[in-house]
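dude i think i finally got it to work??
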Amino acid sequence: MFPLRCPYCDEVVGIRIGAKEPIEKICRPCKNQFVVLKEPWCVRCGKKLLTQGELCQDCQNKPHLFERGRALYEYGSCSSSVYRFKYAGRREYGDYFGEQMVAELGEFIRMVNPDGIIPIPLHKKRQNKRGYNQAMVLAKAVSKYSGVPVYGNFLYRKKNTRPLKSLNPIERQNNLKKAFIIGQNDVKLNTTILIDDIYTTGSTMDEVAGVLLEHGIKRIYFLVLASGDGI
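look at this
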């Protein structure tokens, strides 16, 4: 009654009667429409670099609390899909995205060798309105295909922050202060990978990383579905 839809064009994906899984998770003509982010990228945040060097301008100007991060897609190639994934109830896209994250970024995951995966949490009011947390959906899919356990209750968002897309970098930083708290104290993690949908300035990752560092986690990395270009 509710067939899966292609994460790129949003049309119903072909199914086989009696099969437990769809024949494909994405339409064949759409497979190459998402642009996987390739080198050169910033060695710290993973943004695609448009000029020579190792660091994007943001990472040159601002020290980060996380170690490194990587993005799967160039944002321009998947912006409509990400919007539907977050706001139009297309949580089913998450399985394909998580599978592709592990397929394309598996070497990075193995290099990090994380003890666990932590999704960036939504405030409960926003999650109740949306029906799910897209970062949690992604994290579970990455865990499914990588075998790394996901800790969905490790972190909570106690502050219902304003949408970051409308704020400048300083406003983003102030907006996120004391927004996150530890929710699970009985798990010992030394190295973690944070999961979110989009990376922009790194304000969210830094705020979360600060909380995790205070809790004793030593190395914090991240994976995101998409990021924009760096300079």
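The helical segments are 57-61, 79-87, 93-112, 124-130, 134-146, 169-176, 203-214.
im so relieved honestly
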